[in-house]
Amino acid sequence: MTEVVLDPGPLPVGPYDKKGPGWWGVLSLIATEAALFTYLLFSYYFYDLQLPHSWRPAEPPKLNLSAPDTLVLLVSSAAVWFAERSLKKGSRSRAGIGILVGLILGAIFVVVQIFEWKSKTFTPQTSVYGSIYFTITTFHLAHVLVGLLALLFVLIWIAFGYFDNERHAAVSNVVIYWHFVDVVWLFIFSTFYITPYLW
User: Fold this and answer.
1) What is the Cα–Cα distance from 144 to 19, expressed in whole angstroms?
2) Which residues contact 114 (CB under 8 A, 6 or more apart)?
3) Backbone region of residue 161 per phi and psi (left: phi > 0; alpha: psi in -120 to 50; beta: other values)
4) Crossing angle of helices 128-159/169-189, nearest 10°?
5) Predicted local confidence at residue 22, as pLDDT
6) How far apart are CA 196 and CA 199, in angstroms?
7) Which one of 19, 123, 159, 178 is most buried, counting C-beta atoms within 10 A?
8) % of the chain with per-residue pLDDT over 70
9) Whole-number pLDDT of residue 52
């Protein structure tokens, strides 16, 4: 009978300060996705300037779900930042806890976002506004799901001991991506939930 031994050796990624291909890849991805969201948000503002304000729903959006959901996402960003910082200091257990908290809060964000969608009185087929709203928020939710998957893999790899205070590039790359997802949501939240109260 053959005995299988799991070797928790390091993943083929270098130290974060050497900014390898993964780091540049994540930055390239973020630049591309930032351009995508810029164009999508531009479409909202374009219509808002070209069409009468009646193109938007008559009532300003309620903040009872979106505001707490925004806070949840911001706290998740702080949690993964804590995880990365802990790993750099050599504490894998704290890093794992931070990633786990970020993962749970990200999942809560997804659930609340689905409830937010269900509470809307419009659909993507109802109007231009509905189409833009659901297109942008769906694209963002897709990015959140990708981020959650990445956080899950990082959490598993931390549990297997693949990372330490010198080798943590993959964790740092995932954290950068997660921060990007959170920043994008701040722009989306400001666009759909704050600006209608301003004009």
Assistant:
1) 24
2) none
3) left
4) 160
5) 78
6) 6
7) 178
8) 90
9) 74
